[in-house]
Fold:
Amino acid sequence: MIPIPFIIVGVGLLAAWVLLLAQADRTSSADSTVSADIGGLLMSGFSPFSSLKDYTGCGIYGIDRLPLAELVEEEFGSDATIAHARAMVGICYCECGGKSSPPVIGDTSLTVGPAIGPLQVTRATAKDLGLVPQDETFEAYKQRAMNEEWCLRAGVKVFASKLLSAKGDFADAIRRYNGSGSKAVQYRDKALSFLAEKFGSNWQSA
Structure:
């Protein structure tokens, strides 16, 4: 007759062996899933060793020199996509046409103005989003045009708010960036036409 202590030890060893086999099987399955996910990304044209900057060159120096992709990654974090970055390129094209040598100042005759920077953020919009003090004067805001990075970061934040309002619809967010009405629709169409010309009809992906 086998002593009870030996039986207990044997059962324990068997249980441990079963657990080890199960763990090995789960690890293998997880590795297969990760490999499949990476393979899918590579097949879609996206490289894990690249940044959004690699997908936003439009051939216009005044736009390409701007750190739009980097600021998009800063604003949206892990949610940032090629579509986010390219949408900003389209907006920049509509706002300044690539003529982005600072300072860029527009809409000086409008009560919502001035609009500053390559992305032409108006003083009214900046106030609405809390980017500047509510009592910031026309002249004080105009001086911010000298700080191009601030202007760009403000523009990306404006787009983020419009994209939220548009519930993730990039085309509609571009329209909202300009405002409302027929002019905003024309603005959207101009941006989309430019993006299709530079990146193809499927401009929202690689």
The first helix runs from residue 4 to 43. The beta strands are 105-106, 115-116, 121-122.
